[in-house]
Amino acid sequence: MSKKMKTRKAVAKRFKITGTGKVMHHRARKSHLLSKMGSDAKRQLRGSKEINRSDFKRIKKMMPYG
């Protein structure tokens, strides 16, 4: 009987895997002290972004069933 692989919960909360297999993340610098930031800068931080290809294999290994 083989053991189930565990998902790293910290990683599962920060990244989502799309239906096509891409790994998406939310951008940084969007949580507080936003009054100093211009509206153009805040607008560019909206939405999700695909992770860098260099991190892809590492993130997928930590989320085996994502």
Task: Please report the total strand number as a whole number.
Answer: 3
Number of helices: 3
The level 1 CATH classification is Few Secondary Structures
Low-confidence stretches: none
Strand numbers in spatial order across the main sheet: 1-2-3
- Element-level helix/strand string: HEEHEH
Described by its quaternary structure, the protein is single chain
Mean pLDDT: 90
Walk me through the topology.
Layout (H helix, E strand, L loop, with lengths): L8 H6 E3 L5 E4 L12 H6 L3 E3 L2 H10 L4
Structure description:
The chain is an alpha+beta fold and 66 residues long. It has one domain (9-62): Irregular (Factor Xa Inhibitor). 33% of the residues lie in helices and 15% in strands. It contains 3 helices and 3 strands, in the order αββαβα. It has helices spanning 9-14, 39-44, 53-62, and strands spanning 15-17, 23-26, 48-50. It has a 3-stranded antiparallel β-sheet with strand order 1-2-3.
What attributes does this structure have?
single chain, 66 residues, alpha+beta, Factor Xa Inhibitor, 3-stranded antiparallel beta sheet, 3 helices, 33% helix, 15% strand, elongated
Would you kindly provide a brief summary of this structure?
With 66 residues, the chain is of the alpha+beta class. The protein has 3 helices and 3 strands, in the order H-E-E-H-E-H.
